[in-house]
């Protein structure tokens, strides 16, 4: 049986070279699959044609922007998904969707293998392959960049020797991954932790110091999902896109962090995620108003664990599925409006309102009309501290 390899094709250096390389290694054919996830930049038809020019027998482009925003970005917002409290899972949430469409293409086009362009140092090899293992274990996996130890110089030389159409050159050292939820940049001079990012590194955000006038925005949520901006109804994709523009113009969502990769090394990453960070900030603020205290405390733990599962490539794991169920239940009353000011690199909440609010003005006020019975507080304090009081008495007497 002739091998037919279905390749996750980005149009970049590694996956472009992978097409003739995989054909040579397997003696078979390569089907390239590219997803439009709202990354912008190059026209997807150009990407499709490059795959064909490089030897692919089929080149498929899937418009998955709406699906990505609805089924992957929205759960991330509901989960306040931030790995290590910072990274909004820009790349991590896209991998299971890419795998989904690669498997569909393999079924439709008689695929026997699936392939990706990830290296052995990163997280994405895990995200791709574990998703394949969970959804289509019959398909054999090939990872040429990892398994055959490609270096960037070798890849460029191979492309030049074989007249493979690539746009990258030795003068562009960065590794960039982007979609509508954000942009990730690594390698190059960023590998020296003392080097600051340069202005030309950014594409989704303006310099927060340029002095644009503040932009006030009202984001409306229903069940933890953004449904309107300034009173105008939006789809999940439209919400992200509009806030990418508006928050990006204010320099919101720039991150420069050293993160703990799944493979055990630390990596310096620069991210831009203006829409994602604005929406997560607004969502957190609305949860502060609508979630009961103990539920909110526990959800913060669940959010962190959910982010770790997704970062680690375990989108389909039993634990992640269980965490999903808990998070969905918490979103029942996360409905209302958050007002924010976008300015100078920050998204600052300055207004909250909800018909499901647990904030009671009459209990919170210190002015006349206060309905909080302060006479109950003395006994509460005594009982609340009783166990620690007894333990500390014992410890003093034992000295």
TrEMBL record:
Family, as annotated: Belongs to the argininosuccinate synthase family. Type 1 subfamily.
Binding residue positions for L-citrulline: 87, 123, 127, 175, 259, 271
Organism: Corynebacterium yudongzhengii
Domain Arginosuccinate synthase C-terminal: 174-390
Enzyme class: ligase
InterPro entries: Arginosuc_syn_C, Arginosuc_syn_N, Arginosuc_synth, Arginosuc_synth_CS, Arginosuc_synth_type_1_subfam, AS_cat/multimer_dom_body, Rossmann-like_a/b/a_fold
Designated gene of the protein: argG
Sites where the protein binds ATP: 8-16, 117
SUPFAM superfamilies: Adenine nucleotide alpha hydrolases-like, Argininosuccinate synthetase, C-terminal domain
Keywords annotated in UniProt: Amino-acid biosynthesis, Arginine biosynthesis, ATP-binding, Cytoplasm, Ligase, Nucleotide-binding
GO cellular component, one term: cytoplasm
Biological processes annotated in GO: argininosuccinate metabolic process; L-arginine biosynthetic process; urea cycle
Protein name from the UniProt record: Argininosuccinate synthase
Domain of life: Bacteria
Assembly: Homotetramer.
Start and end residues of each Arginosuccinate synthase-like N-terminal domain: 4-165
Coiled coil: none
């Amino acid at each position: 049986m002739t091998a037919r390899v279905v390749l996750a094709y980005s149009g970049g250096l590694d996956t472009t070279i992978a097409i003739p390389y995989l054909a040579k290694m397997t003696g078979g054919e390569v089907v390239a699959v590219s997803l439009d996830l709202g990354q912008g930049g190059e026209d997807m038809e150009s990407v499709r044609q490059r795959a064909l020019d490089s030897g692919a027998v089929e080149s498929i482009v899937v418009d998955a922007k709406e699906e990505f925003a609805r089924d992957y970005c929205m759960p991330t917002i509901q989960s306040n998904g931030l790995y290590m409290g910072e990274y909004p899972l820009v790349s991590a949430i896209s991998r299971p969707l890419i795998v989904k469409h690669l498997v569909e293409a393999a079924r439709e086009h008689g695929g026997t293998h699936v392939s990706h362009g990830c290296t052995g140092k990163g997280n994405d090899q895990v995200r791709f392959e574990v998703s394949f293992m969970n959804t289509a274990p019959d398909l054999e996996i090939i990872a040429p960049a990892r398994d055959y130890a490609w270096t960037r110089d070798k890849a460029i030389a191979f492309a030049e020797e074989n007249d493979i159409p690539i746009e990258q050159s030795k003068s562009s050292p960065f590794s960039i991954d982007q979609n509508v939820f954000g942009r990730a940049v690594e390698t190059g001079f960023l590998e020296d932790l003392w080097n600051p990012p340069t202005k030309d590194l950014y594409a989704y955000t303006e310099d927060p110091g340029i002095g644009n006038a503040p932009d006030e925005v009202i984001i409306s949520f229903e069940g933890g999902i953004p449904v309107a901006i300034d009173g105008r109804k939006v789809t999940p994709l439209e919400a992200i896109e509009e806030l990418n523009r508006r928050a990006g113009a204010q320099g919101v969502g720039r991150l420069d962090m050293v993160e703990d990769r799944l493979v055990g090394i630390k990596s310096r990453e620069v991210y831009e995620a203006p829409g994602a960070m604005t929406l997560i900030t607004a969502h957190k603020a609305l949860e502060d108003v609508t979630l009961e205290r103990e539920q909110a405390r526990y959800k913060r733990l669940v959010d962190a664990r959910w982010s770790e599962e997704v970062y680690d490539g375990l989108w389909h794991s039993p634990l992640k599925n269980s965490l999903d169920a808990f998070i969905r239940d918490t979103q029942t009353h996360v409905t209302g409006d958050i007002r924010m000011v976008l300015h100078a690199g920050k998204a600052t909440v300055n207004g909250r309102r909800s018909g499901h609010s647990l904030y009671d003005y009459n209990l919170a006020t210190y002015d006349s009309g206060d309905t909080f019975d302060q006479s109950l507080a003395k006994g509460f304090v005594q009982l609340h501290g009783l166990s620690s009081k007894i333990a500390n008495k014992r410890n003093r007497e034992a000295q």
